[in-house]
Specification:
Blueprint (H helix, E strand, L loop, with lengths): L10 E6 L3 H10 L8 E6 L7 H9 L4 E6 L10 H18 L7 E5 L5 H18 L4 H25 L6
Parallel strand pairs: 1-2, 1-3, 3-4
Helix pairs in contact: 1-4
Length: 167
């Protein structure tokens, strides 16, 4: 009798070099344990994270994406995190329109001294995404492709039924 394995979400985390990545490093050297589900990608500034990076992470199989940056007003590049906030609010609307549930994308401000917050945020996100289940965006895209093919077929069929017009 095989036991059903619990779903383990794949989280892609884009962390700002100056704050959130430093906090993750602090968590590591302080031996603060957190869920191993997040794969961290260090970026120089959260403002350098193009929304397309997040869409690509989902398209390539991520179940959730976490973006961590400096607290507003503390950005090493002055206004990078304000740029991030504006971009990500628009992205959240787009994700909702794509049917990607709230909780799969998260933006957090974490300073370099907040190693414990890295633990709390990652563990919380893993639990929330685990409860949502697998995203399987590549599988969903195949379904969308089939719907589009059926729609195109229907349009072609209805156009074939129309009589040609002569000028």
């Amino acid at each position: 009798m095989s036991e059903k394995r619990r779903f383990e979400p794949k989280i892609v985390a884009f962390f700002c070099n100056w704050c959130t990545y430093t906090a993750a490093d602090l968590a590591g050297v302080s031996r603060i344990k957190y869920a191993p589900n997040a794969r961290v990608i260090r970026v120089m500034c959260s403002g350098r994270v193009d929304p397309q990076f997040i869409l690509d992470a989902f398209a390539k199989g991520a179940d959730g994406v976490l973006l961590g940056g400096c607290h507003p007003g503390d950005c090493h590049y002055a206004e990078g995190n304000y740029k991030t906030l504006r971009r990500m609010r628009l992205l959240e609307r787009m994700l909702k329109g794509m049917g990607i549930e709230d909780g799969r994308f998260r933006l957090e401000w974490i300073s370099g001294a907040e190693g414990d917050k890295v633990k709390v945020v990652i563990n919380d996100m893993v639990e929330k995404v685990r409860a949502l289940g697998p995203l399987d965006l590549p599988g969903r895209a195949k379904g969308w492709d089939k719907e589009l093919e059926a729609l195109a077929h229907g349009v072609r069929k209805s156009e074939d039924k129309k009589e040609p017009t002569h000028a």
